[in-house]
Amino acid sequence: MSQIKEISDATFDQEISEGINLVDFNAGWCPPCRMMQPILNNLAVNSEFQKIGFKSVDVDHNPQVAQTLQIQGIPTFIITRDGQIVDRFTGFIPENQLSLRLRKFN
Known about the structure:
Distance between the termini: 14 Å
Order of helices and strands: EHEHEHEEH
Oligomer: single chain
């Protein structure tokens, strides 16, 4: 089963280059980001989403990729397919709504 993998500016392109990935751009000081953690953890271990890679980028420690992708608010989520962004959304999202979004790409 999947778990959430911390990725960095240096590893970002390689980590999203294959398959479907949900990338969470966040920061430790961000309350909505912290509220999303249990939701993301639940989905990451849900067998329904085992083909999706769950990734996390701390924007404070990895500003380059956040700037390149013009991340202006957090949490911001991107869904990628083979390195291409196919969906993007910002802010807290309830687990059932995030599940529905992921099912489109699963």
